[in-house]
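Take a look at the protein record below with the fold in mind.
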Amino acid sequence: MENETIEIIPVVAFGADRNIAASMDPLFVDTPFRLTAVPDLLQEPESVRYTPQNLMTVLFNLHPRPRVFITGPALSQSMTAEAIDVWDAYVRVSKEEDTFVINLRDDPPSDGDWKTHIRSKLSKKYQIAN
């Protein structure tokens, strides 16, 4: 039996509350996706909470480098846009390929089932069986 190497696809999820964002971890069981960082607005100490600079630091220091960025529905429109701008700058500078953003604020699931929505979008983008 050969050892099959599965390419890990690192995911960063940014939400208002770390516990809610981190609750998506079970979504990634039996998939190549791994939740690698969960910046939020409530983390203690305050110095490690989301700021554009902290997000850029996280993105550039993770290994392997993140390829998926998920923004939560509870974030404000301006904070979502700001975080996606940081992500876009990270992608440009790092030259990371085959990246993907899931913006739950601007593209929420019609039925409210955000976990299935995320899994479906990732499966479609990376052609992985649901």
User: Anything to note?
Assistant: The first strand starts at residue 9 and ends at 14.
